Amino acid sequence: MKVLVIGGVAGGTTAAARLRRLDESAQIVVFERGPYVSYANCGMPYHIGQLIKDRQALFVATSDSLRTDYALDVRVRHEVVAIDRTRKTVTVRELAGSTTYEESYDKLILSPGARPIIPRLPGTDLRGVFTLRSVQDMDAIKALLDSGEAKAAAVIGGGFIGLEMVENLMARGLDVMVVEMLDQVLTPLDFEMAAQVHSHLRLKNVRLGLGDGLKSIARDNQGRLEIVLASGRMAKADVVILAVGVQPESDLAKAAGLKIGPRGHIVVNAQMQTTDPDIYAVGDAVLVSDPISGGPTAIPLAGPANRQGRLAADHIAGRQVAYAGTQGTSITKVFDLAVGTTGLNAKQLRQLGIAFRDSISHSPDHASYYPGSTQMSIKLLYRPEGGKLLGAQVVGVNGVPRTVNVLAAALKAGMTVFDLENLELAYAPPFGSAKDPVNIAGFVASNWLRGDVELVSWDEMARLDPRDDAVLDVRTKGEWEQGHLDGAVHIPVQELRSRVSELPSAKRWIVYCKIGRRGYIAARILRAHGLRAVNLSGGLDTLKAATELQGNFEEWRARED
Ligand code: FAD
Questions:
Q1: For ligand 1, is residue 82 a contact (CB within 6 Å)?
Q2: How do 508-512 and 532-536 pair as beta strands?
Q3: pLDDT in tens, 81-125
Q4: What's the whole-model pTM score?
């Protein structure tokens, strides 16, 4: 059997190596347009930032090692330019020279990836304006920084590549601004969770412009880049990183008549076969199923690309396999924070018309009496009936990877929030709590679904009806004096039982504390005394983060004037 693979990085090399392990006799040829195969593109921002010092460390395998270890025929700088499905051949252009040749196949695997979107705006082709996908992009950005000429950078787009670049450019001593067209960075998060990231970016002295987009870039008479934003704001930079998203590289598949989805992704079945059963496609270029909604989704991440590559090879080797879909588990480092997500968020669930409830809990990542504990925030989204998990978001300094991974596994296993209450997770004071943050998130959600407490979200606070609703702060006197919500009544939770008669019983009481725990206790007390009471989800911490000024462009301008 002769198998050709197009694309020699994440999905392509995985497929080729797996196939070799299953079939020693297959002839396997990998075509890669670029000069490198199997490199760690996820590590590139950190090499630019000099955290990964050794460039060579990014090359997980080389053409030579794939030849020797897996007997793969790896052809770098070879671009496949056409597929003839009737003759089962591809046309290959050798980029070093300019010859083209044909190669026949029994099975073909496409793993062409996704290219960065370059907005059609003036100046995006100027020297000093970059995207980051390939090793060459990385080398060019790093060379400019190494020259010492760059003092300021503008990152356009607040997705994970954009924010990783923000952090690494700052590590190189540059002043960095990030501009995001939406009102929040990191769209897998819901707004109030992203608000914590905004606050952290401001803390780290990043210039954060939200709800604004790039309009044009020009070179000024000192040779610097002048950036004009849609709002009319202007800024100077020496390096601009365009990180506004990616689009699938599906031109080849389209030209070959394979079915393409509405946003240009290659349509595949659960065996990763395209509409031509002898042609498989994997990775960033494909449309797969979302196991939660059952609908189509495209999630450009390395984990799915690797698993799909492996699965395509399994199927070619005759194994009965089926891809279970991509639920979108991700994690990103933003300075001291880690941000993890899995499944669908509130915006997506609303768009899909899926009924859900959500709740937020804040817990120490490990026993608070053991040094170094930090707060971790978890948002769960789940079915109102039965509590089946639909998604989770985790933001914190420590413990985020283990937490999001537990939640991702729970989601995959079809667990409910009631299952989370009972998960038995490892605990010793340096590592966790006897009630793990995942258990606590499960308690909060389950309490609501069982009717033990009712929750209101931070955005509902702006819609309270003063004729019916009243707000009760149950924190300590010291906390109250440092600031509280306008119009709130203050009774610390410890005094509530003896002072409950002070609260008019005709009102619905919205109870709040710092993170929601004391608010829950207080709401239970009020209900036991016959009052209507609801607890503010995530407490004042969530409300404050979501309602404060998110961007800081104006603040920077004031500083400079
Ligand atoms: P790629 O790995 O992009 O490989 C496709 C290859 O195909 C390319 O090298 C291309 O040159 C080649 N090719 C395309 N067309 C042809 C052709 N016609 N002929 C020959 N060759 C062709 N994901 C995560 O999960 N976590 C992370 O932390 C993370 N960080 C990232 C950081 C950066 C800077 C980038 C750019 C990506 C990051 N990703 C991350 C995404 C991850 O790298 C991709 O999801 C993954 O590489 C996709 O694999 P793929 O095989 O589909 O495409």
A1: no
A2: parallel
A3: 999 999 999 999 999 988 999 999 999 999 999 999 999 999 999
A4: 0.96
